[in-house]
Structures are given as C-alpha cells and as structure tokens.
Amino acid sequence: MIIDTHTHVWSFPSYRDLSQHIKTTEDLIAFRTRYPELYNCSLTEDPVDNSDALIADMDKNGVALTLVQARPGYVTNDQVAQAAARHSDRLQAIARVGHDQEAAGYHDDPGPTREWAPEEIERCLTKLKMKGVGEIFIRSLTNEIHPERIANDLDGLMKVVSKHGAPIQFPTAWSQFPGGLFYGDPLWVDEVALRHPKVPIILTKMGRSVGRYFDSAMTVAMRNVNIYFDVVGTNPQHLRFAIDKLGPHRIMFGTDWSATWRWISVPATLHKLRMKVLDDANVTDEERRMILWDNAIQVFKLEEEAKKARSVFRSAAE
Ligand SMILES: [Zn+2]
C-alpha cells in the first residue's frame, strides 16, 4: 500500500492527450522549448480539474492516498482544495504560492508575493484545512543569493508553517520551467533549516540524479535532522546512499504526477518508473514500508486519513 506525497493537479483543455508529445523524461524536459505554442496554453487557457485521471492511475498502481498540490500556472489553492474534496477519502491537499510565476516567469520584484505569502499559507492551513506546503520555487519570494539574506526573506512564510507544525517542500535541481535554476542547489536551505528546527523540510527530488545537487542535499540533510527527501527522479545509487547515511525514516515516496508527467510511457509508466528505483536500490521490506507509507503519515500527520483511504481502497479492490 502506497502514499504518494508529490503530485500536481489541474490541467488545460489542450493537454487532454499529450501521449504523442511526451513519452520519455527527456521529452518532458524539452516540452516548453520544443512546443512553445502548446506550452503557452498553460498560461492562456482556463484550467480544468483532472483529478479523476489521477484516481484512475492510483487505482492501477496500488496508491491508497495522494497529496495533491497546484500545478504551475494560474491554478488557485481553492481549486486544489475543491479537487481534493471531490475525492475526500483518497486525496488530501497541500498549499502553494508563487507557482503562477514558475510557469509564466518571475517578477522582477519578489516583494509583493513575499508580503502576501504568509497570510495565504495561513488561510490554506486553517480555513482550507491543508496538510502542509507544497513545492515553493523561492525565486518568487526572493532575489537574494546569500543564504542568510534568503533565510531573512523566507522568515515570514516559515514562521507560519512553524506555528502550525506543518511540513514544507523545496524543489531541488532542474525543472522544465523558465528561470530560477540557481535555487535548485539546496545549499541555501541549511540556514532556513537551522532557524526553523521544528519544521520538517522536504527537499523534493533529492537532486534529481544530478551529482552536484545530490551532494548539496546530502550535506544539508546530514547537518539538520528536520530535512527529508522524496524519491522523485532520483536513481538507485543516490537512494541507497541516502538510506544508508540518513536512515529510511527520512525519505518519502512521490511520483510528481501532473498534466504533463502523467504521459510518461517509456521505459515505463510514471508510477512504475518511480517504483523501479526502489527495487533497483534493493530496499528491504522494512525500508519499503517506511518510504511508501509510515514516513508520510508521521510528517504530514495523516493517521486518520491513511486509515480511511486504505479501507476505501481495499474494499474497492475486492
Ligand atoms: Zn513537483
């Protein structure tokens, strides 16, 4: 039984079938520059809820419960909450800010987004009852490059998540989206983790199989016990090294399922591709149980939700 901690919901009408455009991870990375007109649809079209397709993929792959967050572009936290509410026994929502700029390009002045972010996250964690904060591409909140100045700019947001004991995700390495690559090296997270020791910080993608980003992620994680990883895009060697050095309790399963990633079919479908990394890293049964299930429950406080999702999933499978 699996909990997927990393997915992005909502899509666009032109993304209804991308099976001919995206087959491999390399197709995905090149999507924006290879099909600029199609990419731009994500900025001009009204978003549509694609959570039924997510549930179908979860059913096929043994995923009982999934955490959903907004895809890059003009998708609101309220829309994400709506999608999760339609499948309340299988989906739980987490919040994002700045993901509009992730897709459309970052504003020169990050000030206004930085001022607004703490109150929006507070609203999501209280009124919308979200379980944490999803991937924050921090260029939307800062244009500083010194770690202490970056941490100063993130203080307002981090104080809110710390107050609620909620976890937060920061992405590592590259993405298909324009700009902000500098912040994909997570060395700057060290200062943020030091200042906010009660906040579980998840470095998503754990360097995405790139050695220099993985080395930075490991260095930060070994110094700070509040750092966690997810397995999206990693390789068996990095996963094995991280388990051995940090312990299996610091790593969670995720797919990065989204309107674009869901079309991956070569060498395997997205869920199968992510699971294969665990097989190839020779994870033990106990490590597997922690990575696929226990750690997500502990970090995102999903005790009740996981119990319910498991029984709903089991009775549907019978
Ligand atoms: Zn993601």
Describe this structure in words.
There is one protein chain. 48% of the residues lie in helices and 11% in strands. Helix 7 links the parallel strand 4 and strand 5. It contains 13 helices and eight strands. It starts with a strand and ends with a helix. The protein is of the alpha/beta class and 318 residues long. It has helices spanning 25-34, 36-44, 51-61, 77-86, 99-104, 111-126, 147-164, 189-195, 211-223, 236-246, 270-280, 285-300, 303-317; strands at 2-9, 63-70, 91-93, 133-135, 168-171, 201-204, 227-230, 251-252.
Oligomer state of the chains in this structure: single chain
Low-confidence stretches: none
- The CATH topology turns out to be TIM Barrel
Helix share, percent: 40-55%
User: Can you tell me the CATH superfamily?
Assistant: Metal-dependent hydrolases
**Major sheet: order of its strands?**
4-5-6-7-8
Query: Any idea what the CATH architecture is?
Result: Alpha-Beta Barrel
Percent in strands:
5-15%
The biggest beta sheet reads: 5 strands, parallel
Class inferred from helices and paired strands: alpha/beta
Features of the shown structure:
318 residues, alpha/beta, TIM Barrel, 5-stranded parallel sheet, 3-stranded parallel sheet, 8 strands, 48% helix, globular, binds zinc ion
Mind sketching the topology for me?
Layout: E1 2-9, H1 25-34, H2 36-44, H3 51-61, E2 63-70, H4 77-86, E3 91-93, H5 99-104, H6 111-126, E4 133-135, H7 147-164, E5 168-171, H8 189-195, E6 201-204, H9 211-223, E7 227-230, H10 236-246, E8 251-252, H11 270-280, H12 285-300, H13 303-317
Parallel strand pairs: 1-2, 2-3, 4-5, 5-6, 6-7, 7-8
Helix pairs in contact: 1-2, 6-7, 7-8, 9-10
Residues 6, 8, 135, 256 line the site of zinc ion.
